[in-house]
From TrEMBL:
InterPro entries assigned: HicB-like, TA_system_antitoxin, TTHA1013/TTHA0281-like
Classification lineage: Bacteria, Candidatus Sungiibacteriota
Taxonomy, superkingdom: Bacteria
Protein name listed in UniProt: Type II toxin-antitoxin system HicB family antitoxin
Domain HicB-like antitoxin of toxin-antitoxin system: residue ranges: 17-65
Length: 79
């Protein structure tokens, strides 16, 4: 059986206390939102959500490393 190679990914994760739970978002992974009853639970939920998000993207072969802070575009302007 062929052993799958693992890659470690790191993402800034935001834990926001709200209405008795911690809401979790990951700015570089649009649409990823989860929550936990406490900070420890929220961290576990975040790891699971990030793993599922990345596995889905990799499975679809659409994953590419993105830097949300920069983007290149060519814009034409008439003067």
């Amino acid at each position: 059986m062929k052993k799958r190679r693992e890659t470690i990914y790191q993402y800034e994760t935001v834990f926001e206390p709200t209405d008795g739970v911690y809401m979790v978002t990951v700015p570089k992974l649009p649409g990823l939102v989860t929550q936990g009853d406490n900070l420890r639970d929220a961290r576990g939920m975040a790891k699971d959500a990030i793993r599922c998000y990345l596995e889905a993207i990799l499975k679809d072969r659409e994953f590419k490393s993105r830097d949300a802070t920069s983007k290149r575009e060519r814009i034409r302007v008439a003067v």
